[in-house]
Amino acid sequence: MAYYRPPGPAPDPLIVRELTHQQDALRTRTRLEPLAQEPQFIAGCDSSFPTPETVLSVFVVLRFPSLELVEKVYHVGPVTLPYIPGLLAFREAPNLLVAYEKLRQKPDIIMVDGHGIAHPRRMGIAAHLGVELNLPTFGVAKQRLTGLYAEPALTKGSISPLTDKQGALLGEVIRSKDRVNPLFVSPGHRCDQATATRLTLACLRGYKLPEPTRLADHWAEEFKKEIR
């Protein structure tokens, strides 16, 4: 996800309280579990903000494990909520859900550019989207949102745990390319950490980002040219 932080007044505390309650309710519906079978199709998704008033959401679907691009769609909609730390999903998920409905080939699992349970309330955008769609999801983020970790070794494939202060596992920190900053991988819904880590590694093709989110980001830039 593109963490766009527009300037402006502090968010309405009543809105924050209501969305936090909604987030807590959604969290009770998350399930962390292994996949029933190996996916045939894996999606990547990303949101960005071409202007302060609009959000662009992109889905790509790849055949797995070949990672051949099968389909790409986008949807542009209005921004209906200001940026509120910890509640980014409510700003981006509605437009992502509309974009998802445009897919003809529905995926077996979705790799989200953002966090799953590695979130202060264990309810990042990947978990939120998974519950809304009732689909397996996991998050691959470029920055830490919460948790403690030791830097993994500098070689590709090195991994270290991301934990809370009590030592509970929130995700894994993965070096996806030699000597580049690591990725923060966490399960969202109907997925477990082992699956999220395995699929992330299986989708690397020489870049820092795994192909589903890399291509979602690439096509977001191409689609921006179309809508200008």
Q: What string, H for helix and E for strand, traces the elements in order?
A: HEEEHEHEEEEHH
The share of residues in helices is 25-40%
- The CATH topology label is archaeoglobus fulgidus dsm 4304 fold
Distance between the termini: 20 Å
Task: Kindly report the spatial arrangement of strands forming the biggest sheet.
Answer: 3-2-1-4-5-8-7-6
Arithmetic mean pLDDT: 94
Biggest β-sheet strands, sense, barrel? 8 strands, mixed
Radius of gyration: 17 Å
Taken as a percent bin, the fraction of beta residues is 25-35%
The named CATH superfamily:
archaeoglobus fulgidus dsm 4304 superfamily
Query: Which architecture would the CATH scheme give at its second level?
Result: 2-Layer Sandwich
Structural class given helices, strands, pairing? alpha+beta
Q: Helix count? A: 5
Tell me the name of the CATH class.
Answer: Alpha Beta
Q: Return residue spans where pLDDT drops below 50 for at least 5 consecutive residues.
A: none
Q: How does the overall form come out from the CA principal axes?
A: globular
Instruction: Work out the number of β strands.
Output: 8
Task: Kindly give the count of domains.
Answer: 1
Description of the molecule:
The protein is α+β, with helices and mostly antiparallel strands. The protein has one domain: 2-Layer Sandwich (archaeoglobus fulgidus dsm 4304 fold). The protein is 29% helix and 25% strand. An eight-stranded mixed β-sheet has the order 3-2-1-4-5-8-7-6, with helices on both faces. It is globular and about 45 Å long.
